[in-house]
Amino acid sequence: MQITVFNHPLLKTKMTMLRDVNTSPAKFRRIIGEVAMLLTYEVAKDIPVEEIPVTTPLTETTGYQIKGTVNVVPILRAGLGFLDGVLQVLPEANVGHIGMSRNEETLEPEEYYYKMPRDLNAYTIVVDPMLATGGSAIDAINQLKKHGLKNLCFMCLVAAPEGVKRLNEVHPDVQIFCAALDDHLNEHGYIVPGLGDAGDRIFGTL
Ligand code: PRP
Ligand code: URA
User: Fold this and answer.
1) Which residues have a Cβ under 8 Å from the Cβ of 196 and sit 6 or more positions away?
2) Ligand 2 centroid to residue 105 C-alpha, Å
3) Of 48, 59, 110, 125, which is most buried by a Cβ count within 10 Å?
4) How far apart are CA 196 and CA 191, in angstroms?
5) Whole-model pTM over 0.85
């Protein structure tokens, strides 16, 4: 399995709060925002930079800026829970939206919305809290590639081994980053131990 799991103490403690069934939607939203910032800080290590001249109060020196554009693409709706946190760290990023909803009977994803920034060479971070069967991530990335985007990575909170394996098989070029790699999927396609339905917990639609 090709996946990077960030085992940082702050992520572990915040993930515990997110897993807790007694955490309210308000607290869940706040913590997921904090986790998104920490994850983005790590994921951003792969973003290319270029040298630029900068004048300090004392002298001329060499500084850096991000080379090219960065896109952040939340998979609706739960991916929106990540958006503010990602943009705190990458305020200049452009935002694309892709609407996918998992049919709870077939577990197959269904696309209902697609709107992307224009730059096809942008470094694109696809974000969704959950990588379960992998269907939603795979279909979203299929669509992005079909529209010409190339430099893609996928960032989530919790991944299931089943989804990682499928995503690796279908999109071996897409790096996966997460805060936790969990044990397995249950018979309803939920990640165990997981944190339940991320969208419902973010938006209070339980
Ligand atoms: C959840 C989650 C992922 C998907 C993961 O979304 O946010 O998009 O399920 O499952 P998969 O890997 O098996 O495809 P859901 O379809 O529940 O929609 P929501 O974001 O509107 O709650
Ligand atoms: N989608 C979720 O929100 N949670 C899971 O555990 C699986 C899919």
Assistant:
1) 21, 190, 206
2) 13
3) 125
4) 7
5) yes
> What mean pLDDT is predicted for residues 94-120?
92
- For ligand 1, say whether the CB of 201 is within 6 Å of any of its atoms: no
Output the six-digit token pair for 45: 């290590």
Report CA(69)–ligand 2 centroid distance (Å).
30
Rounded CA-CA distance 83/106 in Å is: 28
Crossing angle of helices 9-19 and 25-43, rounded to 10°: 150
Query: Does ligand 2 come within 6 angstroms of the Cβ of 100?
Result: no
Indicate which residue's Cα is closest to atom 2 of ligand 1.
130
Calculate mean pLDDT across residues 187-195: 97
How far is the centre of ligand 2, averaged over its atoms, from the C-alpha of 21 (Å)? 14
What DSSP string runs through 86-117?
HHHH-TT-EE-EEEEEE-TTT--EEEEEEE--
Residue with the smallest CA separation from ligand 2 atom 3 is 197
Please give the average per-residue pLDDT across 157-161, as a whole number: 98
Give the integer Cα–Cα distance in Å for 174 and 163: 13
Structure tokens at 163: 């989804």
